[in-house]
Task: inverse folding
């Protein structure tokens, strides 16, 4: 079992470029979410999904897009990258609201 | 709005000491609280999950307590080792979607 797998691990983008951060889980969990981690800010929720076909916004959704076509995958799209999106991005999954959350190893994104 | 605070922000102790990390939250209406460990440049590793109905959880040298009414949790680490050096994060699960609200962490350094 790989758990939660994020790709790529590192990425450098130019301002205005778009890209997709991948997240895949083999735990058969319904709930998946994306967080960003910034120095001094802690982890903040970007978008989340409670099942295939269902997504919703978190605390900091602007500039990001998500979709959930399968239980296993929850990609995060940056539509037009900005330097303010330089951050470490984490994908997480949980079986349900009272269950333990599991995180991927993160994607370190730099926008220049 | 739920706010999670961790004190101290950083802590340095000699090897072998018992230590306590603190986490407080402003809204006691939570489903659970989870403690994580994060090594530099790595993802989050789940340490302990305490349900709102529980008072404490133990795993090896770690013991986490929860006082929901006062909005506090502590992580007790017994007989600290240099390998315990990491950032420790606490997070509360408040919503039905299973999403987490994080503190900013306590950076622990255990000196040999």
Result:
């Amino acid at each position: 079992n790989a758990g939660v797998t994020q790709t790529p691990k590192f990425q450098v983008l130019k301002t205005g470029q778009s890209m997709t951060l991948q997240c895949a889980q083999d735990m058969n969990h319904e709930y998946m979410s994306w967080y960003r981690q910034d120095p001094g800010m802690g982890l903040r929720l970007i978008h989340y999904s409670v099942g295939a076909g269902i997504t919703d916004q978190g605390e900091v959704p602007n500039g990001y897009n998500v979709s959930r076509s399968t239980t296993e995958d929850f990609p995060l799209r940056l539509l037009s990258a900005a330097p303010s999106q330089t951050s470490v991005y984490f994908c997480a999954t949980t079986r349900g609201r009272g269950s333990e959350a599991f995180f991927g190893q993160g994607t370190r994104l730099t926008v220049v | 709005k739920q706010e999670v605070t961790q004190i101290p922000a950083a802590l340095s102790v000699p090897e072998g000491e018992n230590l306590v990390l603190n986490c407080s939250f402003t809204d006691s209406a939570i489903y659970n609280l989870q403690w994580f460990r994060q090594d530099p440049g790595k993802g989050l590793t789940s340490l302990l999950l305490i349900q709102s109905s529980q008072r404490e959880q133990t795993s090896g040298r770690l013991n986490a307590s929860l006082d929901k009414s006062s909005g506090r949790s502590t992580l007790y680490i017994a007989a600290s080792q240099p390998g315990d050096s990491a950032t420790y994060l606490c997070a509360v699960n408040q919503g039905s979607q299973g999403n987490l609200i994080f503190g900013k962490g306590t950076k622990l350094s255990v000196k040999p």
In short: The mean pLDDT of chain A is 95. DSSP finds no helices and eleven strands in chain A. Chain A touches chain B through 28 residues (CB under 8 Å).
